[in-house]
Specification:
This protein is α/β, with parallel strands linked by helices and 460 residues long. Helix content is 24%, strand content 26%. The chain starts with 20 loop residues before the first helix and ends with a strand. The protein binds beta-L-fucopyranose.
């Protein structure tokens, strides 16, 4: 029977099988507990701070000495409160960037705050402050180290593991460990002992997700804050290796800006066409990493490049609102504080995030759709000016929806399609721009087996 929306998902499923052995294989891939937890806290921040903050560079030279770290004070309380004001749930700190300088007093090198004018352990200051203000704490430890003489030998793998052990035992719970794939093109050839690193993280911080070169969180593929039109979390397992072999990551300092110009290559990572060719699949959700400013590290001459709240909000909708997590970098200055311009923007950005769900029209938990409810229709009690629709699949049953339409019911009773989407996943936020309506309807056009919708909400 034809419905007023022509055909719903149960009729044709766009010509794709709704169920089969092959589809069972796709939807059997689900997030583990750590990845489920991550999806519930999808927005968190990076802090790039260290030797490069003191020298106003993006990458070090490998020739710095501890004396070059001339920073005298750090206001960790301000860092955390400013970031918290934007609604972020955690902070990942660059404990050691490529220059090799350590922000904690490591027992395994002299190249740390211990031998600089700065007195104190910055990792401790930040992790303590995160806990005090209720934010999660995460660790960035650069595998590539242009300073340490052991780099390129087995002894470096031991050194790296010793440092990881310090960071993962002395600073409380760690929610994410970020392993960067970047490595200078003239760096010595060296294979990191990734499995040893991963085992250590699992042993010392079993609740931490390991990102980028790690197996839990996938790099979205650019540093410009842009996700794909369709972001699937079920992808071929081979993708977990791709950053480890450094195919697309940064090879020299000047390449950073080209990464901000996101590429459209490898647009499709998880459609049926891709999955059917791959025997091994995994849950590997994307993380969008982007800086609030041009560079990853602070420099005075980039104060003009601070993104506006509106720009950050667009990035938020395109990441958190598009089945990704968002890792927004906020670099404190050499004065040890987050610049007031960034602070102002972050607060306004936080307000914009809150505004999405501030005024609900209807929010409902749904569950499994059956053949009889191929579309879900809502009538509002009066005319509303709808601004957002937010849909979440229950990803503990994998990611199923492949195509959907959103209609509004206009005050004259006629339906109008306002959005045609593909994947939904953990969260899809649709901007409807305050359209007047007396109802709304979600029509699933294509799905891998029956969709299981956790919640759907319409907001003014
Ligand atoms: C890149 C690094 O080279 C940048 O300096 C920055 O840390 C960014 C997040 O990752 O690979």
């Amino acid at each position: 029977m034809k419905t007023k929306f022509d055909e719903n998902w149960t009729n044709k499923n766009n010509g794709y099988p709704l169920n089969s052995k092959e589809i069972e294989r796709y939807i059997s891939v689900v997030p583990n507990e750590n990845q489920l937890r991550l999806a519930k806290k999808p927005y968190y921040c990076f802090i790039h701070f260290g030797m490069n903050t003191a020298t106003a560079r993006e990458w070090g030279s490998g020739l710095e000495t501890a004396d070059d770290f001339t920073i005298k004070s750090v206001n960790a309380k301000q860092w955390v409160s400013v970031i918290k004001s934007s609604g972020a749930s955690g902070i990942i700190l660059t404990c050691k960037h490529h220059d090799g300088f350590c922000l904690w007093e490591s027992d395994y090198t002299d190249f740390s705050v211990k031998n600089s004018a700065f007195k104190g352990d910055i990792v401790k200051m930040v992790s303590d402050e995160c806990r005090r203000q209720g934010l999660d704490f995460g660790v960035y430890l650069s595998p590539w180290d242009m300073h340490d003489k052991r780099y390129g030998t087995d002894a470096y793998n031991d050194y790296f593991c010793n440092q990881l052990t310090e960071l993962l035992t002395n600073y409380g719970d760690v929610f994410e460990v970020w392993f960067d794939g970047a490595k200078g093109s003239n760096a010595v050839k060296f294979e990191y002992d990734w499995n040893r690193y991963f085992d250590l993280v699992r042993k010392l911080q079993p609740k931490a997700n390991i990102a980028i070169c790690g197996p839990d969180i996938r790099w979205v593929g650019n540093e410009g804050g842009k996700s794909r039109k369709t972001e699937y979390s079920v992808v071929p397992c081979s993708l977990r290796e791709s950053e480890r072999v450094m195919k697309d990551s940064q090879h020299d300092e000047s390449q950073a800006s080209s990464l901000q110009q996101y590429k459209q290559t490898d647009e499709d990572l998880g459609s049926r066409k891709i999955l059917e060719k791959n025997a091994f699949l995994c849950w590997y959700p994307a993380e969008v990493d982007v800086s609030i400013r041009k560079g990853w590290f602070y420099s005075d001459d980039e104060n003009k490049t601070v993104k506006s709240p509106k720009k950050l909000f667009d990035i938020y909708l395109d990441s958190v609102g598009n089945n990704c997590t968002l890792l927004l970098n906020v670099p404190p200055s050499d004065k040890g504080v987050i610049h007031r311009k960034d602070a102002r923007v972050l607060k306004a950005f936080g307000k914009m995030i809150n505004s999405v769900t501030e005024s609900p029209i209807i929010v409902q938990e749904l569950g499994r759709l059956t053949k009889d409810n191929g579309y879900i229709e809502y009538n509002f009690d009066c005319v509303k000016k709808m601004k957002y629709a937010v849909i979440s699949e229950d990803i503990s049953y994998s990611q199923r929806i492949e195509s959907f339409d959103l209609y509004i019911k206009k005050p004259n009773g006629k339906y109008k399609r306002v959005y045609n989407g593909t994947a939904v996943g953990s969260k899809k936020i649709i901007r409807v721009k305050g359209k007047k309506c007396i109802g709304a309807c979600l029509v699933i056009r294509q799905s891998r087996s029956n969709p299981i919708i956790k919640s759907i909400g319409f907001y003014e």
